[in-house]
């Protein structure tokens, strides 16, 4: 530990001296104002290095902000394999990788970070190679020994992301207009979405089955597509097929036997309570009716249905009105007939007397 601390102090002194030489730059005849107007060569170098595919990097959370970071030893090996990138530094092309990193740190292009979790978690043999949560390291000096460095500048947005930002509103509008599509387009979209959903569910079920079988039988952990459910992963990491190396301890045979019995009981329970053919037929008919209602809906049919309802409602109102008028007239006729009959009976009674 003392040797490593002393080595880092020597590196920091050497880097500070190199930075002073770079800031003075006696060989340059460019005036200070022109140098300020010209873009910093170290910023150009950092952008070029960050966009390079050979520098291994990951994403993590640093003070509630997602940052892209790399390891110190990976940066040193990257610079050894790609010395042509130093040509961007012009007069500083002869600097070592450590000196370049220290200049980037002093220019706040990089920031040294440390892992938040510094203890080995239960069930694992060593710390994570790429931690998901970072914190700022007190001493901003380059080191290769378990040191992480995050980029502080915003990466330039590629062209496909700009095009995608214009496509999203159009796609949202197209989804909202799905009910007015022609019948063939609705069928095509329905089959495509059902196929994608079936593919995702089959993938998740198959990887879970393989993991469970390998864990119970062999005591190994094999997660194919290990990052398929990761919240923070690049597109390249998301579809990585081969699993990572199993760094955790081998499970006990008692735990494997217990989960094997639990799996058998769950399978038997699901088989016992599985629906019969009649229930499956009813469920299929119900779902097909729902899907048919969605596919066969159209504005013309909806408007015609509304007009038919309005016509039926008006006809019903007219019938009710005519019925009420007929009843009223009939009641009036009955009343007048009663009055006439009563008057005739009174006249006859008077004549008899």
Automatic annotation (TrEMBL):
Q: Where is the composition biased (Low complexity)?
A: 317-334
Which InterPro entries does the protein's record reference? Answer: Sec62
The annotated region (Disordered) lies at 1-37, 317-353
- Which UniProt key words apply to this protein? Endoplasmic reticulum, Membrane, Protein transport, Translocation, Transmembrane, Transmembrane helix, Transport
Q: Which GO terms describe its biological process?
A: post-translational protein targeting to membrane, translocation
Its primary localisation, in coarse terms, equals endoplasmic reticulum
| Family matches, as Pfam families | Sec62
Give start-end of the signal peptide.
Answer: none
Compartment list: Endoplasmic reticulum membrane
Q: Where are the transmembrane segments?
A: 163-182, 188-218, 253-270
Query: From which domain of life does this come?
Result: Eukaryota
**UniProt keyword Protein transport, yes or no:** yes
Q: What membrane topology is given?
A: Multi-pass membrane protein
One cellular-component annotation, GO: endoplasmic reticulum membrane
As for family, the record states:
Belongs to the SEC62 family.
What protein am I looking at? Translocation protein SEC62
Organism name: Hibiscus syriacus (Rose of Sharon)
């Amino acid at each position: 530990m003392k040797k490593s601390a002393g080595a880092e102090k020597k590196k920091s002194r050497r880097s500070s001296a190199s930075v002073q030489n770079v800031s003075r730059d006696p060989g340059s005849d460019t005036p200070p104002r022109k140098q300020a107007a010209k873009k910093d060569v170290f910023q150009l170098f950092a952008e070029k290095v960050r966009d390079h595919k050979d520098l291994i990097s990951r994403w993590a959370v640093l003070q509630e902000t997602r940052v892209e970071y790399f390891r110190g030893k990976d940066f040193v090996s990257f610079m050894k394999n790609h010395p042509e990138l130093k040509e961007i530094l012009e007069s500083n092309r002869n600097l070592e990788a450590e000196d370049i990193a220290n200049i980037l740190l002093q220019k706040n292009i990089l920031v040294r970070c440390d892992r938040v979790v510094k203890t080995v978690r239960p069930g694992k043999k060593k710390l994570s190679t790429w931690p998901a949560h970072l914190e700022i390291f007190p001493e901003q000096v380059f080191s290769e020994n378990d040191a992480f460095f995050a980029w502080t500048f915003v990466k330039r947005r590629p062209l496909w992301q700009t095009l995608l930002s214009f496509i999203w509103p159009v796609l949202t509008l197209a989804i909202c207009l799905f009910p007015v599509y022609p019948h063939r387009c609705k069928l095509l979209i329905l089959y495509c979405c059902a196929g994608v959903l079936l593919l995702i569910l089959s993938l998740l079920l198959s990887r879970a089955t393989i993991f469970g079988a390998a864990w119970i039988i062999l005591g190994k952990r094999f997660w194919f597509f290990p990052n398929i459910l990761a919240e923070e992963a690049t597109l390249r990491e998301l579809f990585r097929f081969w699993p990572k190396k199993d760094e955790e301890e081998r499970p006990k045979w008692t735990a494997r036997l217990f989960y094997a019995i639990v799996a058998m009981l769950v399978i038997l329970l699901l088989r016992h309570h599985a629906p019969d053919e009649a229930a499956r037929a009813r469920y299929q008919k119900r779902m097909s009716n729902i899907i048919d209602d969605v596919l066969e809906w159209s504005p013309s049919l909806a408007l015609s249905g509304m007009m038919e309802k309005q016509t039926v409602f008006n006809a019903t109102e007219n019938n009710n009105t005519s019925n009420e008028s007929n009843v009223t007239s009939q009641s009036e006729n009955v009343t007048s007939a009663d009055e006439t009959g009563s008057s005739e009976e009174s006249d006859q009674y008077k004549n008899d007397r």
